[in-house]
Design a protein that fits this description.
This protein has about 350 residues and is an alpha/beta fold. The protein has helices spanning about 10-20, 35-45, 55-60, 75-80, 95-110, 125-135, 165-170, 170-180, 200, 275, 280-295, 305-320, and strands at about 1-5, 25-30, 50, 65, 85-90, 115, 140-150, 185-195, 210-215, 220-225, 235-240, 245-250, 325. The relative contact order is 0.15. It is built from 12 helices and 13 strands. Helix 5 (about 95-110) links the parallel strand 5 and strand 6 (about 115). The chain folds into 2 domains: about 1-120, Rossmann fold; about 125-275 and about 305-330, 2-Layer Sandwich (Dihydrodipicolinate Reductase, domain 2). The strands form 2 sheets. Strands 12-11-7-10-9-8-13 form a 7-stranded mixed beta sheet. It has a 6-stranded parallel beta sheet with strand order 3-2-1-4-5-6, with helices on both faces. This is Gfo/Idh/MocA family oxidoreductase.
Length: about 350
């Protein structure tokens, strides 16, 4: 198998390294807007560097991994499926909801295969939480709390094209809410604060946000996020039922300290970022993509699954901006769209 990778920045080079170690991935062809960067990564991994993206599609690859800047995702995904190539795309599929819908319609019209990168689906803690909820071990689920907190803001130049806190960051939490609980959000109310660094106000974004989601079965969900969590990278999900409650993401590296006299000690080595925290999950999702390409496994996160999480993020952004509750059935791309499916298979 020969896999083409477009984009060799932080996440692209991480994916390339993971696939270079995979026993069934075969050879790699790497391309980047900066050919010199692609050449450096290829040299380090023993892969082939292409002089331009075009060669990824003309040098006989069997699948494509899209890990470049978001603006390039739609064209590359469509180009891959039109060429009959399975494609793995880092989220988001497109910079906005309309663009995402356009790409998915094209994928479906040609019968293409698209897997979207929501790596938390491959994290052991989240997978166990899903099993406990689905088995009924927690009883009737009544409350879910999620949080995603980055240790430091991203570069100012990233913010204007990021889509904002809800679409870029908390969209992972929204995907986990659906995947773990098996329920859909029916309405949301969200708020945000831009009281932190000026770069957020200048970009029309917020550095901290919170959303309340009501699910189809009445479960209440709170999702909070921040770009300014100096203690470290903190990603958690708490699920409370009338029989028991559990937490995913709570371990000896979670950057939170107890104020109780006999509470657990602070983490001596808190998580520093998403690649460190979710490294094994990233590798597992790429292994799933290899199996998908080989016809040996199902698609663990197709475009419609990614769309469902994005629609929640979109509703949250509307709610934050207009200071009102938003019903999900007013956001385009809902279940009435062709080929829509339920949460998480």
């Amino acid at each position: 198998m020969r896999i083409g990778i477009v984009g060799t920045g932080r996440i692209g080079s991480f994916h390339a390294a993971a696939l270079s170690r995979h026993p069934q991935a075969g050879s790699l062809v790497l391309a980047d807007a900066d050919p010199a960067r692609a050449a450096r990564v290829a040299d380090r991994l023993g892969a082939t560097a292409a002089p331009a993206v075009d060669q990824v599609f003309t040098w006989g690859v069997d699948a494509v991994v899209v890990a470049c800047a978001t603006a390039g995702h739609p064209e590359l995904v469509v180009r891959a499926v039109r060429a009959g190539l399975p494609v793995f795309c880092e989220k988001p599929v497109a910079p906005d909801l309309a663009g995402t819908l356009a790409v998915l319609r094209e994928v479906e019209s040609v019968g293409g295969t698209l897997q979207v990168g929501f790596m938390r689906r491959f994290d052991a803690g989240y997978a166990t939480a899903r099993e406990l909820v689905r088995s009924g071990a927690l009883g009737r689920l009544h409350t879910v709390r999620t949080m995603t907190a980055d240790p430091a803001p991203p570069p100012p130049g990233y913010l204007p094209t990021s889509g904002g806190l809800f679409r870029d960051c908390l969209v992972h939490d929204f995907d986990m809410v659906r995947w773990v609980t098996g329920q859909e959000a029916v309405r949301v109310y969200a708020a945000g604060s831009d009281a932190g660094p000026a770069q957020f106000r200048e970009a029309g974004d917020v550095d901290t946000g919170a959303a309340v989601l009501t699910l189809t079965d009445g479960t209440l969900v709170t999702c909070t996020g921040s770009r300014c969590n100096g203690a470290g990278y903190d990603v958690r999900m708490e699920l409370a039922g009338d029989l028991d409650q559990v937490s995913a993401g709570l371990d000896d590296r979670t950057p939170i300290a107890s104020t109780e006299p006999h509470g657990p000690p602070p983490a001596s080595k808190p998580w520093t970022g998403f690649l460190e925290r979710f490294g094994p999950a990233y590798e597992a999702e790429l292994s799933a993509f290899v199996r998908l390409v080989r016809g040996e496994g199902p698609n663990p996160c197709d475009g419609r699954e990614a769309l469902a999480a994005l629609r929640i993020a979109e509703a949250c952004e509307i709610s934050r901006r207009e200071r009102r509750e938003v019903a999900l059935d007013t956001v385009p791309g809902g279940p009435a769209e062709p080929a829509a499916r339920g949460p998480g298979g």
